What does this fold into?
Amino acid sequence: MSKPVVTEYEVLSEHIRKPLRIALVADLHERRAVDILNLLRAQNPDLILVAGDTLERYYENRYQSTVKRRFNPIRWLIVNLIYYLNCFFMLLRPRRSKPDTKYAYSFLRQAADIAPVYLSLGNHEEELQREDREFFRNNGICCLDNEDAETAVNSNFMLIGGLSNEYDADWLTEFAHKDGLKLLLCHNPNFYDTLHINETDIDLIVSGHNHGGQIRIFSMGVAGAGGKLFPKYDKGIYDGRLVVSAGCSNTAAIPRINNPRELVIINMKKR
It folds into this structure.
């Protein structure tokens, strides 16, 4: 597995009082991530935002049936092609990292010793378990499931919201109309358009989901989540406030090409 990189972005906001250094972690998928954790310690962030798909909590049959309902025949063919290519690479790489809840729990527990951790839920966490929520509470992890929390970090008073994959549009509207500095964890960056987050004044939106497109050609990601080709939001910063991570793990046996795993650092400053 290739070494992860640190990618930095700058976001300006009129609501910032003092510079704020934020770490974005996305798409751990219960893989070992000691190298990401070491980078996180070295970056010394003021705040850690974990934007979904940290755990593997979905029923496989339910997920597959959802995929079948949503995709047209051509896309379904592409998804199957990717699936069988992945199976082929799994034969070549039998020792690749496999998901285990203990890896995710260990990462979060240690991350909480570095800075306050706020976590939202992605499409792989639609069946979150009671023991997961107990772990979050017992280890100081603030899990935001279509809800928001007030906090103060480095003299910045803010609201941090978490939009789940099974989203609550009414909560999102209420959150967007609140005053002051607002940060939103939103695992799926497509919601930026489809839920009209792009029309709000939310200062920062952080996402993951597309894993950078897995293979990047001419700075474009080839395959997004669910087999979508050339996704609009694969990785990077958009509109100066939507930051999309390429992800912290490689869940596919197909190798990443021109697309290393990454820890994202966001430097928020006064506009």
Q: What stands out?
A: Residues 210 and 225 are 5 Å apart (CA to CA). The first strand starts at residue 5 and ends at 13. Confidence is low (pLDDT under 50) at residues 61-69.
